[in-house]
Amino acid sequence: MKKFLLFVFLLASLQISAQEKPGNQQFWENLKKHCGKAYEGENLTPSENDPFSGKKLVMHVVDCGEDFIHIPFFVGDDKSRTWVLTMENELIKLKHDHRHEDGSEDKITQYGGIASNTGMAGIQVFPSDQETADLIPYASNNVWWITLDETSFTYNLRRIGSDRFFSVKFDLTKEVESPGPAWGW
User: Fold this and answer.
1) Which N-terminal residues, if any, form the signal peptide (predicted)?
2) How many CA atoms lie within 13 A of 181 on its CB side?
3) DSSP characters for 17-31?
4) Mean per-residue pLDDT, 109-114
């Protein structure tokens, strides 16, 4: 009887784990729950010559489709940055869309990376892709990662082999007013 109960327990455990979605799908669905909402953030890594210092930081999960999520990242009055997440071949890709105030693309734009695996529901990691290495050779060792939980969203950058580290954390428990559309969107 004990062996039978153990077998039933193991079979039920396998069925439950087989029904679980991969980490990237859970991450994607949890992020999409914030579509249309804006949140204020703080720079966790301020430095002496920090261009973010003293400026209001806001992210706005503005546009969510089946395979894309657009998140403008506002730094004070600067609306030049948008994080573009896309689902490609069942993996998440992160690109940085940089625009001028007139909407034209910056000469350094569309850099980023694609997750090397499905990751976890609370974190996705994006090593620099070849397009980034070609566009910005010194950024070929960049690794970006985004964490997401019930209360916060963090965007992080580490340049492997250097002291370069940037992290900004947004409070998902308090919505704020969006500064409007990002430049070019």
Assistant:
1) 1-18
2) 9
3) HHHSPPHHHHHHHHH
4) 98
| pLDDT of amino acid 53 | 84
Residues sharing a CB contact under 8 Å with residue 160, sequence separation 6 or more, in sequence order? 141, 142, 143
- How many C-beta atoms surround the C-beta of residue 112 within 10 A? 23
Average pLDDT of the segment spanning 156-177: 96
Q: Provide the terminal-to-terminal Cα distance of the chain, rounded to the nearest Å.
A: 65
pTM (predicted TM-score): 0.87
Residues 147, 5: Cα–Cα separation, whole Å: 39
Tell me if 114 sits within 8 A of 93, measured CB to CB.
yes
Q: Cβ neighbours of residue 3 under 8 Å, at least 6 residues apart?
A: none
Cα–Cα distances (Å) from 15 to 18, 68, 127, in that order, read 5, 30, 33
| Planar angle of CA 22, 128, 172, nearest 5 degrees | 55
pLDDT 10s digits, 34-76: 999 999 999 999 888 888 888 999 999 999 999 999 999 999 9
The pLDDT value given to residue 50: 83
